[in-house]
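Minutes, project huddle
Topic: does the predicted pose make sense with zinc ion bound?
PN asked that the exact inputs be recorded in the minutes so nobody has to dig through chat later. Recorded below.
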Amino acid sequence: MSISHIEHIGIAVKDLEESIRFYEDKLGLKCYSIEEVEEQKVKTAFFMVGQTKVELLESTDPEGPIGKFIEKKGEGVHHIAFAVDNIEESLKDLTEKEVRLIDKSPRKGAEGLDIAFLHPKSTHGVLMELCQNKNK
Ligand code: ZN
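Predicted holo structure (tokens), as shared on screen:
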């Protein structure tokens, strides 16, 4: 597999509007997109920082993955996303290397990216996401 860069860092927040104000007013970043990903039960806000994005995630359902994360751990860094050239190949490669996957095949994430998560139990504690932008 081939990772080109960190595509984004996902951060779980309780209140998206309030968090956007922090990133804009205090950090001077500009939110360029707000999107709801129904399947993931989240509302997301994106900021560009160089070639890496910050993705803020607010849960739309306490039973969703971000809702549960916040209940257990509170707000904070949720996942790190690596951009890969070929997500299917990467997942196949990792399966052969006996890395535990949450998503055995890619699905659609925010911004129309193809995404898949690796299980934190086999990545030394970090929830990792692979993503490939097939639109470019
Ligand atoms: Zn993500």
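Observations noted during the meeting:
- Residues 3-132 form a domain with the 2,3-Dihydroxybiphenyl 1,2-Dioxygenase; domain 1 fold (CATH 3.10.180.10).
- Residues 71 and 108 are 25 Å apart (CA to CA).
No decisions taken; revisit at the next huddle.
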